[in-house]
Amino acid sequence: MNDTTIAAVSDAVVITDPEEIRLVSNDQSIDRDFTGATTVRNQTFLKTMLEMFSVGGKPLPTMLPRTDAARAAAQDALWSKLNLLADDLKSGPQELEPLAAWVRGTGAAEAIGPLVQQCVGRLFVEDFTSTEESWAAACLMLEASSSSDVAKLLLLQISGKLDRAKALLSSMVNGDLSAVNGIGVALHHIVDGLHRMRQLAADPAKGAQLAVDAVVDECLFAPSNVMRLATADAEVGGCPFKKGAFLILSLGSASKAKANRDLVFLSQSWSRCPAENWVPALLEGVWKRALVPASPNENNSK
């Protein structure tokens, strides 16, 4: 959700300053414990968000507090797993050819979504295959999380359409909620990055002038906002917060400057994204491969 959307449906403090976001992210009294007391308006909003980002009543990892030991262990394990895979991606292996071909201009603009979903899905299930239905489910999750129309969100929930979409994604990854988040929510930021990469590749003269690191940096997209709740009275950056205050960290805008790119993945926080190294490595590998068309032998092996 964007800042305007959040302001329309909740009593929230929106934080845009990068250093204040870092302070808030690491303050022990500001958490993702959304079960605490807050305003009636916030309770309604949080209930909707928790239902949206849960499967079968179980919240996705991105909605769990720092004190959740199972969440922390799974997050660290996934971080380690993805880090082991990252170095191999940087060279642009053959497995990235479908993404690289799209970046070079092959295929319709909308084709990239299912390709990314399949790439992310195979981190969890070796033979994961994206389908029209699974991509539609991911798009529905994006639509729901970006909507400011509370009536529309309630209708999606009452109709069961959103629950069916999440259940489909869950069934494809054996109920792994980190995987559901990957193939239903987080992948959209990679899709945005590859759209930007395709634009860069469409101008060979400009693309050739950019260092690989610069391309990767330009193609990193953070979530627009993440939510936190004050679990006690606190003060951050000279600004006091009462217990129950609802805080919105505007990562999308705050992470734009190069010095603040750590905010894309909240790398300095307990809630860092497990893919903080994997996603840049993926983008680097795709860009390198996109600059060199696939060899005849590779094409014949597909």
Describe this structure in words.
It is built from 15 helices and 8 strands. It is globular. The longest helix is centred in the middle third of the chain and has 25 residues, at 177-201. It has 302 residues and is an alpha+beta fold. It has a single domain (3-55, 70-292), classed as Cytochrome p450, CATH 1.10.630.10. The strands form 3 sheets. Strands 1-8-5-2 form a 4-stranded mixed beta sheet, with helices on both faces. Helix content is 55%, strand content 8%.
Would you spell out the secondary-structure blueprint of this structure?
Elements: H1 3-9, E1 12-15, H2 18-26, E2 30-31, H3 40-52, E3 54-55, E4 58-59, H4 69-90, H5 97-103, H6 112-121, H7 132-146, H8 150-159, H9 161-172, H10 177-201, H11 204-209, H12 212-218, E5 226-230, E6 234-236, E7 239-241, E8 246-249, H13 251-254, H14 278-290, H15 296-301
